Amino acid sequence: MSAGEEPRRIVHIDMDAFYASVEQRDNPDLRGKPVAVGGASKRGVVAAASYEARRFGVRSAMPSVTASRRCPDLIFVKPRFDVYRAVSAQIREIFARYTPLIEPLSLDEAYLDLTGRLRAGMTATATAAEIRAAILAETGLTASAGISYCKFLAKVASDQRKPNGQFVIPPEQGAVFIASLPVGRFHGVGPATAAKMKRLGIETGADLRAQSLEFLQARFGKSGRWYHDISRGIDRREVRADRIRKSIGAENTYFDDLHDLSAGQEALAPLAAKVWRHAERAAARGRTVTLKVKYTDFHQITRAHSLHRPVMNEAELLEIGQALLAGVMPDPRGVRLLGITLSGFGQKDNMFEGQLDLFE
């Protein structure tokens, strides 16, 4: 935001434990109990956890066996994505009463740009509270909100008072707030990048701000510019409605190198589960599966396969990824990283643009 420029009014709305909350709403027997949406099988993954389950350390993307170990009384519920989509559409109708500039990130969260659209006498903070109250009254579900002058800080702010709360970061407080923020809380900084930053002595927003653009670009490539700007509270991204997502991907770097095909194919399973879970959340259907392989000598290759129709389910996504992997493994160098991406989305299947980064 430049000097003299009117600050934007950006709100990030994030539903509280959305899938699990819907299940608890629709089944009174689940209320107040630890609930995990997902499969309870050996290869199952938690798609969402109620706040009662989170107290035991149960989190989304966690293997179901680990979740059950942490919370022996955990109740697993099969996901009902058709219901989640219907509730999401109901929530979006509420958003539309306040602004046409709605940028969904998934079924349970979205950015809203209220700039120039506030009713007389209303502030963005008061409007966010009114939206949350409407969601509760009409769906029986709670939402949290973050309000700020840019998307980055609005998203960070929505986590500050969860569940069922909201938090505002005005322009004059943005720099101070960012300075004390751990880099692991920065959007776009995953665990691996946070660990790399820590090795460089960068642990907070203030540490990041102290680095030059050249330093950050040399060590983080094109992401260096993003880290440089957001550490200074600069985020000029607009809230854009009905954006088309380009891809959804997940990857993992392994502590022990993978040498045989069976180990590699087994390692792909949780990555495919993660990608499919987020594709379901975004109501996105893709036709192209891309495999990413990085060998121990850091040589990297990709292999892709496209269908004439969208990939049907998680099992098919994994099957295609494993088949692609069979063409490049085993390799005497060993594999240090595997990734799988779903792309080739049609406009009728989703509303988003840009890659959903699940890579760390």
Automatic annotation (TrEMBL):
Name of encoding gene: dinB
Coiled coil: none
SUBUNIT field: Monomer.
Locations listed in the record: Cytoplasm
Protein name: DNA polymerase IV
InterPro entries with a match to the protein in the record: DNA/RNA_pol_sf (IPR043502), DNA_pol_Y-fam_lit_finger_sf (IPR036775), DNA_pol_Y-fam_little_finger (IPR017961), DNA_polymerase-Y (IPR050116), DNApol_IV (IPR022880), IMS_HHH_1 (IPR053848), Rev_trsase/Diguanyl_cyclase (IPR043128), UmuC (IPR001126)
GO biological process: DNA repair; DNA-templated DNA replication; error-prone translesion synthesis; SOS response
Reaction equations catalysed: DNA(n) + a 2'-deoxyribonucleoside 5'-triphosphate = DNA(n+1) + diphosphate
Annotated Mg(2+) binding sites: D14, D108
GO molecular function annotations of the record: damaged DNA binding; DNA-directed DNA polymerase activity; magnesium ion binding
Cofactor note text: Binds 2 magnesium ions per subunit.
GO CC list: cytosol
Active-site residues, Swiss-Prot/TrEMBL: E109
EC number(s) given by UniProt: 2.7.7.7
Organism expressing this protein natively: Paracoccus aurantiacus
Cofactors named for this entry: Mg(2+)
Major site of localization recorded for this protein: cytoplasm
